[in-house]
Design a protein that fits this description.
This protein has about 425 residues and is α/β, with parallel strands linked by helices. The chain has 20 helices and 10 strands. It has one domain (about 80-415): Glycoside hydrolase, family 3, N-terminal domain (TIM Barrel, Alpha-Beta Barrel), CATH 3.20.20.300. Strands 9-8-7-6-3-2-1-10 form an 8-stranded parallel sheet. This is beta-N-acetylhexosaminidase.
Length: about 425
Protein backbone atom coordinates (compact mmCIF):
# COMPACT_ATOMS: atom_id res chain seq x y z
CA UNK A 1 0.00 0.00 0.00
CA UNK A 2 2.94 2.36 0.66
CA UNK A 3 4.08 2.00 -2.96
CA UNK A 4 0.52 2.80 -4.01
CA UNK A 5 0.39 6.05 -2.03
CA UNK A 6 3.81 7.21 -3.20
CA UNK A 7 3.01 6.54 -6.83
CA UNK A 8 -0.23 8.49 -6.65
CA UNK A 9 1.40 11.45 -4.92
CA UNK A 10 4.17 11.62 -7.53
CA UNK A 11 1.57 11.76 -10.27
CA UNK A 12 -0.32 14.45 -8.30
CA UNK A 13 -3.58 12.74 -9.09
CA UNK A 14 -4.82 13.63 -5.65
CA UNK A 15 -3.28 15.60 -2.81
CA UNK A 16 -0.87 13.71 -0.60
CA UNK A 17 -2.76 14.97 2.41
CA UNK A 18 -5.88 13.19 1.13
CA UNK A 19 -3.85 10.04 0.59
CA UNK A 20 -2.40 9.93 4.05
CA UNK A 21 -5.48 10.91 6.06
CA UNK A 22 -8.77 9.07 5.56
CA UNK A 23 -11.63 11.52 4.89
CA UNK A 24 -14.34 11.74 7.49
CA UNK A 25 -17.63 9.99 6.87
CA UNK A 26 -20.18 11.98 4.91
CA UNK A 27 -24.00 11.91 5.14
CA UNK A 28 -23.95 9.96 1.88
CA UNK A 29 -22.55 6.95 3.76
CA UNK A 30 -26.03 5.57 4.36
CA UNK A 31 -24.85 2.36 5.99
CA UNK A 32 -22.46 4.15 8.30
CA UNK A 33 -19.63 1.74 7.47
CA UNK A 34 -17.05 4.48 6.92
CA UNK A 35 -17.98 6.19 10.16
CA UNK A 36 -17.83 2.92 12.05
CA UNK A 37 -14.40 2.19 10.61
CA UNK A 38 -12.98 5.59 11.54
CA UNK A 39 -14.43 5.30 15.05
CA UNK A 40 -12.70 2.04 15.87
CA UNK A 41 -10.01 2.26 18.50
CA UNK A 42 -6.85 0.12 18.40
CA UNK A 43 -8.27 -1.98 21.23
CA UNK A 44 -11.52 -2.52 19.29
CA UNK A 45 -9.56 -3.76 16.29
CA UNK A 46 -7.33 -5.99 18.39
CA UNK A 47 -10.32 -7.60 20.05
CA UNK A 48 -11.74 -8.40 16.62
CA UNK A 49 -8.48 -9.98 15.50
CA UNK A 50 -7.02 -7.41 13.13
CA UNK A 51 -4.70 -4.41 13.35
CA UNK A 52 -5.73 -0.77 13.62
CA UNK A 53 -4.73 -0.19 9.98
CA UNK A 54 -5.45 -3.54 8.33
CA UNK A 55 -4.55 -4.55 4.80
CA UNK A 56 -6.86 -6.42 2.46
CA UNK A 57 -4.54 -9.41 2.75
CA UNK A 58 -5.02 -9.42 6.51
CA UNK A 59 -8.79 -9.36 6.03
CA UNK A 60 -8.61 -12.21 3.50
CA UNK A 61 -6.74 -14.36 6.01
CA UNK A 62 -9.46 -13.72 8.59
CA UNK A 63 -12.18 -14.74 6.10
CA UNK A 64 -10.93 -18.30 6.15
CA UNK A 65 -12.18 -18.70 9.73
CA UNK A 66 -14.68 -15.88 10.35
CA UNK A 67 -16.44 -14.10 7.50
CA UNK A 68 -18.15 -11.55 9.74
CA UNK A 69 -14.89 -10.41 11.33
CA UNK A 70 -13.25 -10.30 7.89
CA UNK A 71 -15.99 -7.97 6.67
CA UNK A 72 -15.48 -5.71 9.69
CA UNK A 73 -11.78 -5.73 8.84
CA UNK A 74 -12.51 -4.51 5.30
CA UNK A 75 -14.74 -1.78 6.73
CA UNK A 76 -11.73 -0.55 8.75
CA UNK A 77 -9.76 0.21 5.58
CA UNK A 78 -10.27 3.72 4.15
CA UNK A 79 -12.49 3.22 1.09
CA UNK A 80 -10.19 5.17 -1.23
CA UNK A 81 -7.33 2.82 -0.36
CA UNK A 82 -9.38 0.01 -1.91
CA UNK A 83 -9.56 1.67 -5.34
CA UNK A 84 -7.19 -0.84 -6.96
CA UNK A 85 -9.23 -3.73 -5.58
CA UNK A 86 -12.20 -2.58 -7.69
CA UNK A 87 -10.30 -3.28 -10.92
CA UNK A 88 -9.47 -6.37 -12.95
CA UNK A 89 -6.38 -5.32 -14.88
CA UNK A 90 -4.92 -6.88 -18.00
CA UNK A 91 -1.17 -7.53 -17.87
CA UNK A 92 1.26 -8.81 -20.48
CA UNK A 93 4.61 -8.65 -18.65
CA UNK A 94 5.83 -9.41 -15.16
CA UNK A 95 6.81 -5.77 -14.67
CA UNK A 96 3.25 -4.67 -15.49
CA UNK A 97 1.88 -7.23 -13.06
CA UNK A 98 4.22 -6.05 -10.28
CA UNK A 99 3.24 -2.44 -10.91
CA UNK A 100 -0.46 -3.25 -10.75
CA UNK A 101 -0.07 -5.22 -7.52
CA UNK A 102 1.92 -2.38 -5.96
CA UNK A 103 -0.98 -0.03 -6.80
CA UNK A 104 -3.38 -2.21 -4.85
CA UNK A 105 -4.83 -4.13 -7.80
CA UNK A 106 -5.90 -7.59 -6.68
CA UNK A 107 -7.14 -9.08 -9.97
CA UNK A 108 -4.75 -9.74 -12.86
CA UNK A 109 -6.14 -10.77 -16.25
CA UNK A 110 -4.06 -12.66 -18.82
CA UNK A 111 -5.23 -12.00 -22.37
CA UNK A 112 -3.80 -11.73 -25.86
CA UNK A 113 -0.05 -11.12 -25.89
CA UNK A 114 0.55 -12.08 -22.26
CA UNK A 115 3.93 -13.54 -21.33
CA UNK A 116 2.93 -17.01 -20.18
CA UNK A 117 6.38 -17.68 -18.75
CA UNK A 118 4.89 -16.03 -15.65
CA UNK A 119 2.62 -19.03 -15.16
CA UNK A 120 3.67 -21.35 -12.36
CA UNK A 121 6.11 -24.03 -13.48
CA UNK A 122 6.92 -22.39 -16.82
CA UNK A 123 9.74 -19.98 -16.02
CA UNK A 124 11.75 -18.29 -13.30
CA UNK A 125 9.96 -18.95 -9.97
CA UNK A 126 10.93 -15.47 -8.80
CA UNK A 127 8.89 -14.02 -11.69
CA UNK A 128 5.86 -16.29 -11.39
CA UNK A 129 2.25 -16.02 -10.30
CA UNK A 130 3.28 -17.51 -6.96
CA UNK A 131 5.77 -14.67 -6.54
CA UNK A 132 3.07 -12.13 -7.35
CA UNK A 133 0.74 -13.72 -4.82
CA UNK A 134 3.42 -13.32 -2.14
CA UNK A 135 4.09 -9.74 -3.20
CA UNK A 136 0.41 -8.87 -2.76
CA UNK A 137 0.44 -9.92 0.88
CA UNK A 138 -2.87 -11.65 0.35
CA UNK A 139 -4.79 -13.49 -2.32
CA UNK A 140 -4.89 -12.39 -5.96
CA UNK A 141 -7.51 -13.33 -8.52
CA UNK A 142 -5.76 -14.54 -11.69
CA UNK A 143 -8.07 -14.82 -14.69
CA UNK A 144 -8.06 -15.73 -18.38
CA UNK A 145 -10.49 -16.13 -21.30
CA UNK A 146 -10.48 -19.89 -21.75
CA UNK A 147 -13.80 -20.75 -23.37
CA UNK A 148 -12.78 -23.34 -25.95
CA UNK A 149 -12.95 -23.22 -29.73
CA UNK A 150 -12.03 -19.81 -31.14
CA UNK A 151 -11.44 -18.20 -27.74
CA UNK A 152 -8.78 -20.20 -25.96
CA UNK A 153 -5.59 -18.59 -24.65
CA UNK A 154 -3.98 -21.71 -23.20
CA UNK A 155 -4.36 -24.21 -26.04
CA UNK A 156 -0.61 -24.47 -26.65
CA UNK A 157 0.02 -25.12 -22.95
CA UNK A 158 -2.75 -27.40 -21.70
CA UNK A 159 -4.42 -28.53 -24.92
CA UNK A 160 -7.48 -27.58 -26.94
CA UNK A 161 -11.11 -28.04 -25.98
CA UNK A 162 -14.11 -27.82 -28.32
CA UNK A 163 -16.22 -24.74 -28.85
CA UNK A 164 -19.41 -24.40 -26.84
CA UNK A 165 -21.45 -25.29 -29.91
CA UNK A 166 -19.43 -28.46 -30.46
CA UNK A 167 -19.82 -29.40 -26.80
CA UNK A 168 -23.61 -29.16 -26.95
CA UNK A 169 -23.79 -31.01 -30.27
CA UNK A 170 -21.47 -33.90 -29.41
CA UNK A 171 -21.32 -34.27 -25.61
CA UNK A 172 -23.68 -34.79 -22.70
CA UNK A 173 -23.78 -32.21 -19.88
CA UNK A 174 -21.99 -34.68 -17.60
CA UNK A 175 -19.23 -35.13 -20.17
CA UNK A 176 -18.82 -31.36 -20.34
CA UNK A 177 -18.56 -31.19 -16.55
CA UNK A 178 -15.93 -33.92 -16.52
CA UNK A 179 -13.93 -32.29 -19.32
CA UNK A 180 -13.98 -28.86 -17.69
CA UNK A 181 -12.96 -30.32 -14.31
CA UNK A 182 -9.91 -31.89 -15.96
CA UNK A 183 -9.15 -28.72 -17.93
CA UNK A 184 -9.68 -26.58 -14.84
CA UNK A 185 -7.24 -28.68 -12.83
CA UNK A 186 -4.57 -27.91 -15.44
CA UNK A 187 -5.41 -24.20 -15.22
CA UNK A 188 -5.19 -24.33 -11.44
CA UNK A 189 -1.67 -25.78 -11.55
CA UNK A 190 -0.58 -22.83 -13.69
CA UNK A 191 -1.86 -20.41 -11.06
CA UNK A 192 -5.24 -19.37 -12.47
CA UNK A 193 -8.18 -18.91 -10.13
CA UNK A 194 -10.89 -17.67 -12.53
CA UNK A 195 -12.07 -18.31 -16.09
CA UNK A 196 -14.12 -15.69 -17.93
CA UNK A 197 -16.37 -18.45 -19.23
CA UNK A 198 -18.78 -19.92 -20.12
CA UNK A 199 -20.85 -17.95 -22.60
CA UNK A 200 -24.51 -17.88 -21.57
CA UNK A 201 -25.59 -16.03 -24.71
CA UNK A 202 -28.24 -17.52 -26.98
CA UNK A 203 -26.85 -17.70 -30.51
CA UNK A 204 -28.57 -15.57 -33.12
CA UNK A 205 -26.26 -14.85 -36.04
CA UNK A 206 -24.59 -17.90 -37.52
CA UNK A 207 -20.89 -17.11 -37.04
CA UNK A 208 -18.51 -15.34 -34.70
CA UNK A 209 -17.79 -12.58 -37.20
CA UNK A 210 -21.43 -11.42 -37.23
CA UNK A 211 -21.60 -10.30 -33.60
CA UNK A 212 -18.67 -11.96 -31.77
CA UNK A 213 -20.76 -14.89 -30.52
CA UNK A 214 -21.54 -17.59 -33.13
CA UNK A 215 -19.99 -20.92 -32.11
CA UNK A 216 -19.05 -19.48 -28.73
CA UNK A 217 -22.70 -20.08 -27.74
CA UNK A 218 -23.96 -23.53 -26.85
CA UNK A 219 -27.21 -23.23 -28.80
CA UNK A 220 -30.07 -21.16 -30.21
CA UNK A 221 -32.28 -22.84 -27.59
CA UNK A 222 -32.15 -20.96 -24.26
CA UNK A 223 -32.84 -24.12 -22.26
CA UNK A 224 -29.88 -25.91 -23.86
CA UNK A 225 -27.64 -22.90 -23.21
CA UNK A 226 -28.59 -22.87 -19.53
CA UNK A 227 -28.10 -26.62 -19.11
CA UNK A 228 -24.66 -26.71 -20.72
CA UNK A 229 -23.45 -23.44 -19.18
CA UNK A 230 -24.28 -24.84 -15.74
CA UNK A 231 -22.48 -28.11 -16.53
CA UNK A 232 -19.41 -26.20 -17.75
CA UNK A 233 -19.32 -23.97 -14.67
CA UNK A 234 -19.76 -26.94 -12.35
CA UNK A 235 -16.69 -28.63 -13.83
CA UNK A 236 -14.60 -25.51 -13.29
CA UNK A 237 -15.83 -25.23 -9.72
CA UNK A 238 -14.87 -28.83 -9.01
CA UNK A 239 -11.34 -27.91 -10.10
CA UNK A 240 -11.22 -24.84 -7.85
CA UNK A 241 -11.68 -22.35 -10.70
CA UNK A 242 -14.36 -19.65 -10.47
CA UNK A 243 -16.67 -19.38 -13.48
CA UNK A 244 -18.07 -16.17 -14.99
CA UNK A 245 -21.28 -16.26 -17.05
CA UNK A 246 -21.34 -13.71 -19.87
CA UNK A 247 -22.55 -11.39 -21.46
CA UNK A 248 -25.59 -10.18 -19.45
CA UNK A 249 -28.27 -9.33 -20.57
CA UNK A 250 -27.43 -11.16 -23.82
CA UNK A 251 -25.12 -10.57 -26.80
CA UNK A 252 -26.37 -13.30 -29.12
CA UNK A 253 -28.90 -11.16 -30.99
CA UNK A 254 -27.12 -7.79 -30.98
CA UNK A 255 -26.70 -5.76 -34.15
CA UNK A 256 -22.95 -6.31 -34.37
CA UNK A 257 -19.65 -6.83 -32.55
CA UNK A 258 -19.08 -4.54 -29.55
CA UNK A 259 -15.33 -4.91 -30.08
CA UNK A 260 -15.80 -2.84 -33.25
CA UNK A 261 -18.68 -0.42 -32.62
CA UNK A 262 -21.76 0.41 -30.60
CA UNK A 263 -24.33 -2.39 -30.81
CA UNK A 264 -27.96 -2.73 -29.82
CA UNK A 265 -29.74 -5.69 -28.22
CA UNK A 266 -33.40 -6.56 -28.80
CA UNK A 267 -36.09 -4.83 -26.75
CA UNK A 268 -36.61 -5.84 -23.14
CA UNK A 269 -39.67 -8.05 -23.86
CA UNK A 270 -37.67 -9.88 -26.53
CA UNK A 271 -34.70 -10.28 -24.20
CA UNK A 272 -36.89 -11.64 -21.42
CA UNK A 273 -38.43 -14.20 -23.76
CA UNK A 274 -35.11 -15.44 -25.14
CA UNK A 275 -31.65 -14.02 -24.34
CA UNK A 276 -32.27 -13.52 -20.62
CA UNK A 277 -33.67 -17.01 -20.07
CA UNK A 278 -30.28 -18.73 -19.50
CA UNK A 279 -29.22 -16.02 -17.05
CA UNK A 280 -32.51 -16.42 -15.18
CA UNK A 281 -32.02 -20.19 -14.93
CA UNK A 282 -28.42 -19.74 -13.78
CA UNK A 283 -29.13 -16.91 -11.34
CA UNK A 284 -29.46 -19.25 -8.35
CA UNK A 285 -26.07 -20.92 -8.85
CA UNK A 286 -23.69 -20.19 -5.98
CA UNK A 287 -20.03 -19.18 -6.17
CA UNK A 288 -20.22 -17.83 -9.72
CA UNK A 289 -19.85 -14.35 -11.21
CA UNK A 290 -21.57 -12.53 -14.07
CA UNK A 291 -20.13 -10.27 -16.76
CA UNK A 292 -22.18 -7.37 -18.14
CA UNK A 293 -21.66 -6.57 -21.82
CA UNK A 294 -21.55 -3.27 -23.70
CA UNK A 295 -24.71 -3.61 -25.78
CA UNK A 296 -27.35 -0.90 -25.68
CA UNK A 297 -30.60 -2.24 -24.22
CA UNK A 298 -33.81 -0.47 -25.29
CA UNK A 299 -36.36 -0.47 -22.50
CA UNK A 300 -33.94 -1.13 -19.63
CA UNK A 301 -33.87 2.43 -18.34
CA UNK A 302 -32.92 4.29 -15.17
CA UNK A 303 -35.31 7.22 -15.40
CA UNK A 304 -34.29 8.61 -12.01
CA UNK A 305 -30.80 9.29 -13.37
CA UNK A 306 -31.93 10.01 -16.94
CA UNK A 307 -30.05 6.96 -18.24
CA UNK A 308 -31.74 5.39 -21.25
CA UNK A 309 -30.90 1.86 -22.30
CA UNK A 310 -31.27 2.61 -26.01
CA UNK A 311 -28.39 5.10 -25.76
CA UNK A 312 -26.18 3.68 -23.00
CA UNK A 313 -23.95 0.58 -22.96
CA UNK A 314 -25.28 -1.97 -20.47
CA UNK A 315 -21.98 -1.87 -18.57
CA UNK A 316 -22.61 1.81 -17.75
CA UNK A 317 -26.35 1.53 -17.12
CA UNK A 318 -27.49 1.38 -13.46
CA UNK A 319 -30.79 -0.23 -14.50
CA UNK A 320 -28.96 -3.27 -15.90
CA UNK A 321 -27.10 -3.90 -12.64
CA UNK A 322 -30.31 -3.39 -10.69
CA UNK A 323 -32.12 -5.90 -12.93
CA UNK A 324 -29.40 -8.49 -12.39
CA UNK A 325 -29.24 -7.98 -8.64
CA UNK A 326 -32.98 -7.87 -8.03
CA UNK A 327 -33.91 -10.67 -10.43
CA UNK A 328 -37.57 -11.44 -11.25
CA UNK A 329 -36.97 -11.04 -15.00
CA UNK A 330 -37.92 -13.78 -17.48
CA UNK A 331 -40.76 -15.25 -15.37
CA UNK A 332 -41.23 -17.97 -17.98
CA UNK A 333 -37.72 -19.30 -17.34
CA UNK A 334 -38.27 -20.34 -13.71
CA UNK A 335 -40.98 -19.92 -11.12
CA UNK A 336 -40.98 -16.34 -9.90
CA UNK A 337 -38.47 -15.29 -12.54
CA UNK A 338 -34.75 -14.93 -12.00
CA UNK A 339 -33.39 -15.17 -8.48
CA UNK A 340 -31.59 -12.10 -7.09
CA UNK A 341 -27.94 -12.45 -8.07
CA UNK A 342 -25.56 -12.38 -5.11
CA UNK A 343 -22.22 -12.96 -6.83
CA UNK A 344 -19.58 -10.58 -8.17
CA UNK A 345 -20.53 -8.54 -11.25
CA UNK A 346 -17.81 -7.70 -13.79
CA UNK A 347 -17.87 -5.44 -16.80
CA UNK A 348 -16.62 -6.58 -20.16
CA UNK A 349 -13.33 -4.94 -21.18
CA UNK A 350 -13.66 -1.17 -20.81
CA UNK A 351 -10.38 -0.24 -22.48
CA UNK A 352 -10.19 -2.27 -25.69
CA UNK A 353 -13.73 -2.38 -27.12
CA UNK A 354 -14.98 0.43 -29.34
CA UNK A 355 -18.54 0.27 -28.01
CA UNK A 356 -17.01 1.92 -24.93
CA UNK A 357 -13.75 3.55 -25.99
CA UNK A 358 -15.34 5.59 -28.78
CA UNK A 359 -16.94 7.80 -26.14
CA UNK A 360 -15.36 6.92 -22.79
CA UNK A 361 -11.58 6.97 -22.12
CA UNK A 362 -10.40 4.12 -19.89
CA UNK A 363 -10.29 5.96 -16.53
CA UNK A 364 -13.66 7.61 -17.16
CA UNK A 365 -15.23 4.31 -18.23
CA UNK A 366 -14.02 2.54 -15.09
CA UNK A 367 -15.45 5.25 -12.86
CA UNK A 368 -18.76 5.28 -14.77
CA UNK A 369 -19.10 1.49 -14.55
CA UNK A 370 -18.43 1.46 -10.80
CA UNK A 371 -20.88 4.33 -10.32
CA UNK A 372 -23.48 2.34 -12.26
CA UNK A 373 -23.08 -0.68 -10.00
CA UNK A 374 -20.25 -2.89 -11.25
CA UNK A 375 -18.21 -4.66 -8.58
CA UNK A 376 -15.15 -5.07 -10.81
CA UNK A 377 -14.23 -2.88 -13.78
CA UNK A 378 -12.27 -4.92 -16.33
CA UNK A 379 -9.49 -2.89 -17.95
CA UNK A 380 -7.85 -5.50 -20.12
CA UNK A 381 -6.04 -3.30 -22.63
CA UNK A 382 -2.44 -2.38 -21.90
CA UNK A 383 -2.91 0.87 -23.81
CA UNK A 384 -4.35 2.51 -20.69
CA UNK A 385 -2.03 3.31 -17.78
CA UNK A 386 -3.10 1.44 -14.65
CA UNK A 387 -1.94 4.32 -12.47
CA UNK A 388 -4.35 6.66 -14.29
CA UNK A 389 -7.29 4.30 -13.78
CA UNK A 390 -6.52 3.66 -10.10
CA UNK A 391 -6.08 7.39 -9.55
CA UNK A 392 -9.37 8.24 -11.24
CA UNK A 393 -11.26 5.65 -9.20
CA UNK A 394 -9.59 6.82 -6.00
CA UNK A 395 -10.58 10.43 -6.65
CA UNK A 396 -14.15 9.39 -7.48
CA UNK A 397 -14.38 7.63 -4.10
CA UNK A 398 -12.95 10.63 -2.26
CA UNK A 399 -15.38 13.09 -3.84
CA UNK A 400 -18.38 10.78 -3.41
CA UNK A 401 -19.15 9.88 -7.02
CA UNK A 402 -18.56 6.22 -6.16
CA UNK A 403 -20.41 5.55 -2.87
CA UNK A 404 -18.21 4.20 -0.10
CA UNK A 405 -20.85 1.64 0.80
CA UNK A 406 -20.58 0.20 -2.71
CA UNK A 407 -16.78 0.11 -2.47
CA UNK A 408 -16.94 -2.05 0.64
CA UNK A 409 -19.67 -4.31 -0.73
CA UNK A 410 -17.81 -4.79 -4.02
CA UNK A 411 -14.47 -5.59 -2.41
CA UNK A 412 -16.07 -8.09 -0.04
CA UNK A 413 -17.87 -9.79 -2.94
CA UNK A 414 -14.78 -10.02 -5.12
CA UNK A 415 -11.97 -10.66 -2.64
CA UNK A 416 -13.21 -12.31 0.57
Amino acid sequence: MRRFLIALCVLVLVGCSADSTPPSSSPADSDGSAAAASAQSPSDSAKKGFSQNPTLGECQALAERDRIVAEECVNAIPAEDLSGALLAVGVTTYEQAEHAVDLGVRHLFFGTGADFSMLNGRGDPSRSLDALQKRSGGRLVISVDEEGGEVQRLADIIGKIPSARQMAETMSPQQVTDMMREHGEKMKKLGFTMDFAPIADVVGAGDVQANAIGSRSFSADPAVVAEYARAYALGLQQAGIDAVFKHFPGHGHTTGDSHERAVTAPTRPELEANDLVPFARLSDMSHVSMMVGHMQTPGIDDASHQVWGAQTPASLNPAVYQLLREGKYSPGAREGGAAPFRGTIFTDDLTGMKAITAHHPGPDAAVAALQAGADQALTASGAVAVLDVVGAVRQAIIDGRIPRAHVYDAVKAAHL
